[in-house]
Amino acid sequence: MTRLAQLDFDERGDVVIARLAGELDLSNVHDIGDGLNxxxxxxxxxxxxxxxxxxxxxxxxxxxLFDLRGRLATARQRLVAVVPEDAPIREVLELAAxxxxxxxxxxxxxxxxxxxxxx
Amino acid sequence: xxxxxxxxxxxxxxxxxxxxxxxxxxxxxxxxARRIAALLAGLSAVLAVxxxxxSPPTEMIGRVGWLVLAAFVAACVAVVRWLVDESKxxxxxxxxxxxxxxxxxxxxxxxxxxxxxxxxALYVLxxxxxxxxxxxxxxxxxxxxxxxxxxLPLLYNGWDGDTAxxxxxxxxxxxxxxxxxxxxIASVRGQRVRLRSVERTARxxxxxxxxxxxxxxxxxxxxxAQLPLDELLHELVVRISGVLxxxxxxxxxxxxxxxxxxxxxxxxxxxxxDSKPIRVAPGDGCAGRVAAERRTVLLDDxxxxxxxxxxxxxxxxxxxxxxxxxxDGRVIGVIEAASExxxxxxxxxxxxLALAADRLSQAxxxxxxxxxxxxxxxTLQRALLPDRLPGVxxxxxxxxxxxxxxxxxVGGDWYDVIPAADGRVGLVMGDVVGRGVxxxxxxxxxxxxxxVYALDGNAPAAILDKVNVLLHQFEPGQMATAVHLDxxxxxxxxxxxxxxxxxxxxRLADGTTEYLHGxxxxxxxxxxxxxxxxxxxxxxxxxxxxVYTDGLVDRPxxxxxxxxxxxxxxxxSAPADPDALCEHVLRSLLPDGPPGDDIALLALQSxxxxxxxxxxxxxxxxxxxxxxxxxxxxxxEAAHVDERDAYRVTxxxxxxxxxxxxxxxxxxxxxxxxEAHITDGDVDVLVRDRGHWRERTNGPGGRGLDLMRSLMDExxxxxxxxxxxxxxxxxxxxxxxxx
Lengths: 119, 739
Description:
The complex is a heterodimer. Chain A is of the alpha/beta class. In chain A, 37% of the residues lie in helices and 29% in strands. Chain A has a single domain, classed as Transcription Regulator spoIIAA. Chain A has helices at residues 29-39, 59-74, 89-95, 108-117, and strands at residues 5-12, 15-24, 46-50, 54-57, 78-82, 104-105. In chain A, strands 1, 2, 3, 4, 5 and 6 form a six-stranded mixed sheet that branches. Chain B is of the alpha+beta class. Chain B contains 18 helices and 23 strands. The model of chain B is unreliable at 696-700 (pLDDT under 50). Chain A binds chain B through residues 1-2, 4, 22-23, 25-27, 56, 58-60, 62-63, 88, 91-92, 95-96, and chain B through 390, 418-421, 455, 621-623, 625-626, 629, 643-644, 647-648, 651, 654-655, 658, 661-662, 700, 703-704, 706-707, 710-711.
């Protein structure tokens, strides 16, 4: 079966960048969550979720973001996301009050800086 | 046999020929008898004519006597004419009557001539005709009659010394002659009877020997080895019953536990009881004993039915012979022969059963090995075929795979459906040349190669090129035919390339049907440096495309051309729905059930997803959410709904479906029903499930509901007893206009 979503990782210093492209829904949310959790180690200062290429995100994805943020917060690690201004998923994130918990940036560099600064 | 014995047996034969009963004329030769009788009657006529002047028959009634003589001669001539005509049937009784009549005629002639005369010589002739032909029990009275007839002149002429002496001399002569004839004929007959009986015995022995050979052939027939196990068991049980003239027979085979046996085939008795196969526990009955003692058991006279096997209980079986089936030193079953009358099974019977057992053991071992290999290949192939076709918006799919008929090995047919992220869908139909486990495993490799190249975004011809190189490099000498299609539902176009594969069939909504013939191409693995070419065809909404393997059209009983023509007719007359189309094609082309070769077929229909309504039925499975979203967004796109609004409607519908899947209480597996309507500026979406809605105000489910309420103008949740219905409504902007 064709994969709905694609998950790639990158690192900048002690910040992990996770690039999530495609569609995130109930069918793959657990696997994506496992992938993200595994990518964050004790040495990680913060995690940047690059959602620029994500075309679908629903309440299952919102739940994932809140869960992930909760887990990272206990280890004093930061979670930020990159979402372009005109991205369709932005509306869902804002309706679900995600920006209050996970700061949204439009530029990757800003997001990386924010994630590193929190450490 | 000594000389003494031989004479003793001759005497015995002679004696037996006088005894009553049996066939009086055994060993007699009817045609020789009628020839002798004819000759003697003819001689009688000649002699009567010759004696006429010597002893004129005028002594008693004057000249009228000549008429009597003439009548006698005429009668003799008539008898001769009758007897020489072989086409007229004559019985021994008639011959005897003729002889008695002859004697009477001679007696009359003597009387006419005035007493003992030359005519008495005729008695000798009739004596021959009577005694020389008939068996002693009939010849002896006849001889006495002739002797009595000779003495008649003494009665009507009175006692005369000379005449009496002459008559006595004649009588003694006749008696001697008659006796010699009688003994001679009886002994000749006896010998002939004995020869015949020897011959008959020899023939019977030869026939019996031939029957034994035939019997053996019946159970060792090499063609039996070709049969599937169950048919072989049935055929053997029928043949054994026939050959040994049994009332019933059964074959039971050991189960996997190595102890219990199950009746697998039977003749003259049921193999099941209460529609369950009859089982034989270890040591139970005759068969149990055979299995436990690993030897042949013969029961000639069973009085207690407890000695009978479960299979024969309740029948009138009186005698049983059981022979073990042994393979690899293990008892793998028992053959049993049963008779309802008391019967001592002969060494020949037992030999035959043992031979059948031996053949059967070998066949079972062979079949088990073959079945294991077949099972592996089939499992492998089944595992490699998609167990469920993916849902793709704008596409309806159906597939069939039919393994070859009994006795054939699994082929290397495969098909695959590869949906791409952009909504296109790739179809592969292929056929590895060869059979069995090797073909199935190569098929797995090819399937993956196609998947990899297709997911990498290659066009059909490029995929075939790459797989061809791959096959050459890693599996030299292997060959496969394949066709790869790439269907774009948005454009309603199909791009395809074939490698030595039968052409796809295109059926338009109006029933027009044609083959999509591509450029001639070699199968994969044949030409290392070939290039495959691809073509395009329109696949408008409602049109169906069928790909298949050659087993469907290349049948042994007809030509490929007529097979292709038949397929075209079948597709033209089939319903448009892919599933019904596959069913119809198989029924039309294979009316007699499973084919000899494997067959795979895959039908794809281009489904319109524009219009005022959209209806979807999907299994309640998270994997189906994407299909709902994609279908809905394509439908909204086709309806020119503003991109943002379309997105909102899609997200809300997705949330409703997710709630139905995730939170439906006691999921029943019933499909999820999604309906969408567009009227003027409003889009309505209805999602219905068969579960119970569980609203969670502070849980994640609540977040979904909030999202729906934020995205839509109206959200109505109706938790009915049979299922929950969610209605969503939103005013939407159309592209190029405002709400």
